[in-house]
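Protocol step 4 of 5: obtain the predicted structure for the target chain.
Materials: sequence only (see below). No template structures provided, no constraints applied. The aim of this step is simply to have a reference model before the mutagenesis design in step 5. Sequence pasted as it appears in the construct record:
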Amino acid sequence: MTVELKGKRILVTGPTGQVGRPLVEALAPHNEVFALARFGKPEDRDAFTAIGAHPIAVDLADGSLDAVPEDPDYVLNFAVMKTGDWAYDLRANAEGVGRLMLHCRRARAFLHCSSTAVYAYGGHEPRTEDSPLGDNHRVMLPTYSISKIAAETVARFTAHEFGIPTTIARLSVPYGTRGGWPWYHLLMMQNGVPIEVHPERPNVYNPLHERDCLAKIPGLLAAATPEVTTVNFGGSQAVAIEQWCAYLQELTGFEPVFRENPEAFGSLQIDTTRMHALVGPTTVDWKDGMREMVQLLAPQLLGN
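Step 4 output (structure tokens):
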């Protein structure tokens, strides 16, 4: 089951981010798209106007939602704040999703983008949607995992109380034309910066190319119910940091330097059973996607 995203009114939060920007660019030619962000830079607002979207400047922590349409067909919530300020990040991420859902309660479906960072470290066992939660990312991003867990809780409460069809998608490692974690690893390799990995190798994730992300959005919206559908959201191929760095070395000649740290994130492979049942497997091969990423962002690095 899926929905057709053509001729619809769609609100996208977090449009300046790595995941949100390609979504707006793909949806704007065929829909009326509202792009909600803080928009601290005027040029960012101009860029979204140029592609046919309607930019709306709002801080979800405490800003007025008066300019936000109350009747979008769909809401795609990709906004995230990770400033390290606990009070602000919890307001923006957790209270913010509740405020937004109440304001847009007439939407046909609400898609809330969460993260696999909500899972506690559990070795190499793939995480199911029922796996234990924990403060996974505290070493690098002290407020991130807890804020994401809090946001999920607020989203579920609001959906249940007000009958808002909702899907919570726990995103793995997104990458594509705007970079991503593998891209940062390549930059570290280029500059001889050590890449921290958990000593219980390999460090496995499910990288998701932006084309697969866009392709699965209609199915995730169709899966939304007031009872809330929670689903892992990543590439069907499980790939280790060590694997993608080795492939990036093949492409560019830059050698990765790994430094073991028991406090590093560690393996966060997901169980894709529920995702495949809801929206099917992804189609972009991880090597093809990462080669394309380098070709677009730094073609001069290929073949060093």
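Step 4 remarks: DSSP finds nine helices and 14 strands in the chain. The chain has one domain: 9-299.
Proceed to step 5.
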